[in-house]
Design brief:
Elements: E1 2-9, H1 11-15, H2 19-29, E2 32-39, H3 43-49, H4 59-66, E3 71-79, H5 81-89, H6 102-106, E4 115-117, H7 121-138, E5 143-148, H8 154-162, H9 166-169, E6 179-184, H10 185-192, H11 196-200, E7 208-213, E8 224-225, E9 228-229, E10 233-239, H12 246-257, E11 262-267, H13 283-288, H14 292-311, E12 316-318, E13 329-333, H15 342-356, H16 358-361, E14 369-378, E15 382-391, E16 393-395, E17 399-404, E18 407-411, E19 415-418, E20 433-435, E21 437-439, E22 442-447, E23 459-463, H17 466-483, E24 485-486, E25 492-496, H18 499-511, E26 516-521, H19 526-536, E27 545-548, H20 554-563, E28 567-570, H21 573-589, H22 591-598, E29 603-614, E30 619-631, E31 635-637, E32 643-652, E33 655-657, E34 659-661, E35 665-670, E36 684-687, H23 691-701, H24 707-723
Parallel strand pairs: 5-7, 5-10, 10-11, 11-13, 12-13, 25-26, 25-27, 27-28
Antiparallel strand pairs: 1-3, 1-4, 2-3, 6-7, 8-9, 14-15, 14-23, 15-22, 16-21, 17-18, 17-23, 19-20, 19-22, 24-26, 29-30, 29-36, 30-34, 30-35, 31-32, 31-36, 32-33, 32-35
């Protein structure tokens, strides 16, 4: 009778290099070796393994010895395997074992008896499960990022799987923050139905999926780790009727740059005109139920996606036509609304991770680490961090080491909190569950009063002692040094909200061959504008600021307007970069006009008698434009050449205007001056271009001034050269 048995080569035999000898004896006997694995028993595993002996006096000795070092476990198959194995290994006490048996030839005592073997079918079932399914527990659940265009149906897909309504609770139905949900293997098994049987045959079964729902505008930029992405695999959701959209392309770029494998969920197939509603949840069956014309239409839309991916360098095909999943991207038609196709999507996803990502998911000898998604103040908890634990285990008594902008934070968690399975970390239906330990991969909330200033997107390390704290501190410091850019070379100024977005945008700018002089986290400040102004002197297209999802501080806003430094603001990466590139293209085509428009306009104006409306804070008075055009934010001087201030605001017929031309009578406001001290009724004033601008006008743009403006400009130059002889040179 052909059957299977298990034997374990114990720590004493491993130390004595007897593994080869023991295994070869079974092979020479004719047994087929099915599984072979070296590992070290945990105390919990050992107690489970020897559970039948737990009431016996030698139980402690058994567990102590088996956990003392590495063992080698094997499953063999052959005729009467269990009984034959017991004969081959010999009596439990080595000195009682017959010569020729394994224990008789090599054993040294009761515990140090070389080998253990199952003595019945019942013990084999239990022992093999403990010894080998443990490895499955060491394979963590894959981290799955769900990406796509803003309205492609990402959250709807997850809601269908989870049976939740997260999307309905989002502002405008759009995901605003990154969230995480754990899908247990039981849920996946239930949803996949008969398709799961094949998945169960894998030696390395995943214990579930940790799914990250990412806002389309962030394209999982925070889901990063040192050297790549924290995501193991991704689902790229594509609207079947719209195909690839801007954010779809952006998602692909980042997936490609971070080398993340992915599958395509071709969503909304039930919205194809003429699609017949089906009772089945399996897309393969649902397609067969459609009219031939609908099948053809779906195929055409599918191959539109195949064609787009081909242009981008990817081979792809409908999942039911793929022969080699390693070389082709699987496309799975689905309907997130009805649930059709979700069993196949999950099956493909789990199958790919089990077959190709075993090494990445294996937790043996992995240091515990995570990634910070978001830091915020929670009522009743104080400072908290939403974290994805990528590898290892975090315990409440451990220290966590994480980055802030100007240093490293080392703290102990006040609380570790987990959402329930199938719930959503960002917006859970039920309260978080306090725990003392969390195993990877997991989305959790860490509460600690010392988390203020932690950088979203930064790596979080778990330290058990002072040596590890020191090691991880140095790692973080090294990463931060390489992350932020601050050079004196020409390049744009980039300010972002998180490390992840900073990293992603820098990468995309590099691919576009746009140099970066400074890349940092935080709001745009006045210093950023001044640095951009200096860069602009050499290259006007680099003397700008890109601001991704951050504020522009008031003093920076004012300085940018005064200095004519463009600040591009956006919450969508591709829009930010596209707008910048479009401006460069347009500005280059009309560069002379663009430069001239930024220069201080040449104008002369008079303070009208009896037109004082406010003496100061700010001074408000009426003026007449005698020559040229006057704009707000324009510096001006008196007849002696002394700068008085800047035009703050202009009003015509009680309406704010950006400019006034010759002959207009308008009200103007000026900050930090007082009427009767710095400015006086009936006085005449000139606009005051700084010397470099005067030089540009003299050398390049004099022809763009009217004859009246040229006359006024010559007066300005004459007055200023009496004060500063090099003015305009």
């Amino acid at each position: 009778m052909t059957e299977q048995s298990l034997f374990i080569v114990k720590p004493d035999a491993v130390v004595r290099n007897l593994v080869g000898e023991v295994v070869s004896r079974f092979e020479r006997k004719g047994f087929k070796l099915l599984k072979l694995k070296m590992f070290t028993f945990t105390q919990e595993q050992a107690e489970n393994f020897y559970g039948v002996h737990k009431d016996k006096p030698f139980f402690g000795e058994l567990t102590s010895f088996i956990t003392s070092g590495p063992v080698v476990a094997a499953i063999i198959e052959g005729n009467n395997a269990i009984a034959t194995t017991r004969i081959m290994i010999g009596a439990t006490k080595s000195f009682e074992a017959d010569p020729g048996s394994i224990r008789g030839d090599f054993g040294l005592g009761f515990s140090e008896n070389i080998i253990h073997a199952s003595d019945s079918q019942e013990s084999f079932d239990h022992e093999s499960r403990v010894a080998f399914e443990w490895f499955d527990l060491q394979i963590r659940q894959p981290i799955v990022a769900v990406l796509g265009h803003v309205d492609s149906g990402k959250t709807s897909l997850l809601d269908k799987i989870r049976g939740t309504g997260v999307q309905g609770r989002e502002a405008g139905g759009i995901t605003q923050h990154i969230g995480a949900s754990f899908l247990p293997s039981d849920t996946i098994k239930e949803m996949c139905g008969p398709l799961y049987k094949k998945l169960e045959q894998s030696e390395h079964k995943v214990p579930g999926l940790l799914v990250i729902d990412t806002p389309g505008h962030e394209v999982f930029t925070n889901l990063r780790s040192r050297g790549g992405s924290a995501a193991d695999i991704a689902i790229l959701v594509v609207d079947v009727n719209r195909g690839f959209q801007p954010q779809t392309n952006e998602s692909l770029k980042i997936l490609q740059s971070r080398k993340v494998p992915f599958v395509i969920a071709l969503n909304k197939c039930d919205q194809i005109s003429g699609w017949r509603k089906s009772e089945t949840k399996f897309i393969s069956q649902a397609i067969k139920e459609q009219d031939a014309s609908i099948q053809t239409d779906l195929d055409q839309k599918l191959y539109d996606v195949v064609g787009t991916l081909s242009i981008l360098g990817y081979k792809s095909e409908a999942f039911y036509r793929i022969e080699d999943f390693k070389s082709e991207i699987a496309i799975v038609p689905i309907s997130a609304r009805s649930g059709v196709g979700i069993p196949e999507l999950l099956s493909v996803l789990v199958g790919l991770t089990q077959q190709y990502l075993q090494k990445r998911l294996d937790q043996e000898e992995k240091e515990p680490r995570g990634i910070v998604l978001e830091v915020k103040d929670e009522v009743g908890l104080g400072q908290t961090a939403n974290v994805i634990l990528i590898d290892g285990t975090i315990k409440k008594e451990n220290s966590i080491v994480v980055a802030k902008r100007d240093g490293v934070i080392v703290t102990k968690p006040k609380a570790l909190l987990l959402p329930k399975p199938l719930d959503e970390m960002r917006d859970p239906r039920d309260k978080f569950k306090p725990v003392t330990q969390v195993d990877a991969a997991a989305g959790l909330k860490i509460a600690s009063p010392d988390l203020e200033g932690v950088l979203p997107g930064s790596t979080l390390y778990v330290a058990k002692n002072d040596d590890e704290i020191e090691k991880f501190t140095k790692l973080i410091e090294s990463e931060m040094q390489s992350m932020f850019i601050d050079t004196e070379t020409n390049g744009i100024i980039l300010k972002c909200d998180t490390i992840g977005s900073l990293e992603a945008i820098v990468e995309m700018l590099k691919r576009s061959q746009v140099p970066v002089a400074k890349a940092d986290i935080g709001p745009v400040n006045r210093r950023d504008i001044i640095e951009a102004k200096a860069i602009k002197e050499n290259d006007r297209h680099l003397g700008i600021v890109l601001a991704f999802n951050v504020k522009v501080l008031p003093d920076a806003q004012e300085e940018s307007e005064t200095s004519h430094i463009k600040v591009f603001e956006d919450k969508i990466i591709y829009s930010l970069i596209d707008n910048y590139n479009a401006w460069v293209e347009e500005d280059s085509a009309n560069e002379e006009d663009a430069i001239f428009s930024e220069l201080t306009p040449i104008s002369k104006f008079t303070f009208l008698k009896g037109m004082t409306f406010r003496n100061n804070n700010p001074a408000v008075f009426g003026i007449r434009i005698d020559v040229g055009t006057l704009k707000h934010k324009t510096p001006f001087m008196n007849m002696s050449g002394r700068k008085v201030g800047n035009i703050h605001q202009l009003q015509l017929d009680k309406k704010t205007v950006s400019s006034a031309k010759t002959g207009d009578e308008v009200a103007c406001s000026v900050k930090d001056v007082t009427i009767g001290r710095q400015i006086f009724e009936e006085d005449v004033y000139y606009t005051f271009p700084p010397s470099p601008e005067a030089k540009k006008i003299l050398n390049r743009f004099l022809h763009k001034l009217s004859s009246e403006e040229q006359e006024i400009f010559n007066e300005i130059v004459k007055i200023q050269r009496e004060i500063e002889p090099m003015y305009g040179y």
